[in-house]
Amino acid sequence: MKTTKKAVISGLAMIGTAVLLAGCGAAPESTGASAGAGASDYLPCMVSDSGGFDDKSFNQLGKEGLDAAAAELGSKKPIEVQSQAETDFASNLQNLVDQGCNTIITVGFLLAPAALESAKANPEVEYVSIDDTVDQDFDGKTDAPNIKPIIFDTAQAAYLAGYLAAGTSKTGVVGTFGGMNIPTVTIFMDGFAQGVEKYNADNGTSVRVVGWDRAAKDGSFTGGFEANDTARQTAQAIIDQNVDVLLPVGGPIYQSAAVAIQDAGREIALVGVDADVFETDPSIGSLLLTSILKGIDVGTKDAIVAAGQGNFDVAPFVGTLENDGVGIAPYHDWSDRVPAELTSKIDALKADIISGKIIVESYLAG
Fold first, then answer.
1. CATH number for 344
2. How many structural domains are present in the chain?
3. Do 189 and 336 lie in a common domain?
4. 203 and 349: one domain?
5. Residue 133 and residue 99 in one domain
6. 77 and 95 part of one domain
7. What is the pLDDT of residues 305-346, one digit of tens each?
8. Is the model's pLDDT at 252 over the cut of 70?
């Protein structure tokens, strides 16, 4: 089940156009696997990535969507299993199968190989894959007929955040770093850098991005998704390059970035990811310029409600600016520091991305 990073990125690029077409209006396909059971007997379940369900980010959003769906359905109480490491994925999935779960949601790109193995071994169980299409053979199709992908073209929203960051930076240097060099992380960094490039082109400026090289497809990474001293040191190394806006991509690693910002003793804006971190973690709200949003909770809820009603739909959902699957959060405490003309320009850019006038490059853009 192992693949190289290059192969993964190549395969994901191949499927981009097909998946986006599916997400933008292909007819739903239903396996009917839940149709025989009433909602009260339906058991939805979830496996987290290593960040855990209290990461105030994508795992937490997935759990919130699952819990909301179960409440709406009046189903059995969901079973949620937390992974401490990648070595837990297969056993956690088997544990849920053994407990009779009707639908299992896997949260995160890294769970895809284990999810595929489990789905093939248990064709009667429905699977929802958040952040991966589960196309391990790179033929442009999900590799098992009982898996629904929920994925997000976050480059579009990150583009807006990059433009915003460049427009609010006083030092002319903005930075980013990630948990791991995988497509679902670097898609944020790519979009962010493209937004900065657009700002420079529009305004004759030369705002720099440190921590990510679009041409080399490499940059600063912590090697995982834990809030730890490695993440703090990585953030500090970027801040030391005169950065005054910082985008950490990787669930809880934003917490370590916040510590580094507070230790710096100067005004540095933080950009959150996945959830509106101002709402999920008010303790660092004053640092937040905005957050790049993924509608994981909404996508998860919709998929589980459909499954619980016997209408499990395996057509991929792709979150975009157009369908509100991605976006940027309000500026909250930073509102008075963002010029009105910059806000208006970002609104115009959003409209141009939705219309197709601006194409934001990503492995999902086709």
1. 3.40.50.2300
2. 2
3. yes
4. yes
5. yes
6. yes
7. 999 999 999 999 999 999 999 999 999 999 999 999 999 999
8. yes
**Same domain membership, residue 242 and residue 114:** no
By the 10 Å C-beta count (0-12 exposed, 13-18 middle, 19+ buried), 79 is classed as middle
Question: How confident is the model at residue 4, as a pLDDT?
Answer: 36
Judged against a pLDDT cut of 50, whether residue 282 lies above it is answered with yes
Q: How many CA atoms lie within 13 A of 149 on its CB side?
A: 31
Tokens matching residue 36: 């025989």
Q: Are residues 186 and 306 in the same domain?
A: no
H/E/C letters for each residue in 23-57? Answer: HCCCCCCECCCCCCCCHHHCCEEEECCCCCCCCCC
Going by C-alpha positions, the residue among 84, 105, 90 that lies closest to residue 224 is: 84
One-letter amino acid for residue 311 of the chain: N
Q: pLDDT, tens digit, for every residue of 123-143?
A: 999 999 999 999 998 888 999
Instruction: Tell me which of 19-23, 40-44, 218-222, 305-309 is least confident.
Output: 19-23
Cα distances from 219 to residues 129, 211, 234, 248, 252, in angstroms, run: 27, 5, 11, 12, 19
173 within 8 A of 210, measured Cβ to Cβ: yes
Does residue 58 contact residue 108 with C-beta atoms inside 8 Å?
A: yes
Residue 324 lies in a domain: no
Show Cβ contacts of residue 122 under 8 Å, excluding neighbours closer than 6 positions: 97
Of 308, 41, 71, 360, whose CA–CA distance to 198 is shortest? 360
Q: Are residues 216 and 231 in the same domain?
A: yes
> pLDDT tens, 154-193?
999 999 999 999 999 999 999 999 999 999 999 999 999 9
Let me know whether 239 and 280 are in one domain: yes
Helix runs in the chain, H state only: 5-23, 58-73, 89-98, 112-121, 154-168, 183-203, 229-239, 253-264, 277-280, 296-308, 340-355
| Domain assignment of residue 262, given as a range | 155-294+331-355
